[in-house]
Please model this.
Amino acid sequence: MTFQPDAAGVQALKRAISDRFTTSLTHLMLEAVPPPGGQADRYRAAVSRVLAAGFPTPVLFGHHAQLRDAALAGDMASFDLKRDSIANLELARRPAAFRIVSLSPENWEASGVEVIRACFADDVGLTTQLFAPTDTAAAEAAVQLQRAKAIIAAAALDWSDELNELLCEIILAVNIGKGGFAGGSVFDLFGAVLFNPGTRPDIAHHLMTLIHESSHLLLFARHLDDDVLLNEPETLYSSPLRRQGRPMEGIFHAMWVSARMTTFGKALLAFPDLAVMMTEVEIEELRGATVDSQKAYEQAYEIVAAHAIFTPRGAQINADAATAMSRLSHD
Model:
């Protein structure tokens, strides 16, 4: 995969992820700890159902992550409970196109909402108490997200194809207490992105958030078999996007995602018929968001260039983004 939108690359990435998922789930369900008497056939049947269902849904990834974490922690009580709950799942097939759905229990099987909440929970309190937005807020966000999807499909087909291949669900949620998140993504819910309907109503925000969070998912996947960065995670650096210091991985992610947002924004703005789909005010908001993304990239790039310690693959990922941004500045 390259820096540019690449639906075929996402397909290849998903095949690699699926292979790893199958191997890991089979090991955890049947081999890591011998199944209790009489359960081996039931667990084997559950693994077979997972394989037959195709590429895993985000919630199934989340169930696997919890089973994995229990095994790594040596928490056998939690491991046994989670393994048994996976064996009882009625698996939903991944939809052909991504759905926009509120974080409500009726939208997922069994303990799906609890799995989503646990996987999205952060360490600063912004996404630790997620719940569904009001019906009105959810409906308004869904309209804008569907509109954003239509704009991307018409004005930037390569970005649209990548999003459709990558995303399964846009989950609408707000947070009790602190509400200052716009979106979210984690590898343990691969294919899902979190969207807060209470942040901003403008279409530029909806467009950019889709690219922001989907780009994070792509970069998370780059870490599957490569460290990308060799900086110590405990070492913090001044961040242009946050007041507190951040590990280099966070700054590098912010830089790479901002580069993708800039590239996407300029692609939309170059579409000759954009004024048919967006008002002058909306186009100016998109232009402003694109400029902000470029500034964020440039500020983060200075820190990355000065302090990042890359693996060879990490250096190539960084170079791909730098090359794309250099070309944009000369257009």
